[in-house]
Amino acid sequence: MELTTPNLKRCVKSENKRWHVVIVGGGFGGLRAAQGLKSAPVDVTLIDRRNYHLFQPLLYQVATGSLSPGEISAPLRQRVQPPEKYPRASG
Length: 91
Known about the structure:
single chain; alpha+beta; two-stranded parallel ribbon
């Protein structure tokens, strides 16, 4: 399956307004969609009940002690955008 970006030129209402895409789920599909829309002229919000992505095929190796939990999970924020784009807390 190949991720394709729709023709956003004909979808945009005006040059001042941007579309807001909401992706529900931070699994493989949600991450792929968010990464595919990085260069598109849209605002992207990724919603998931957890703040990390877990690579479940290696979960058994954590159970046996071969890997640590940190080796099969990564924060969603880190997977989707580079650290320089994180919002900064003021104060």
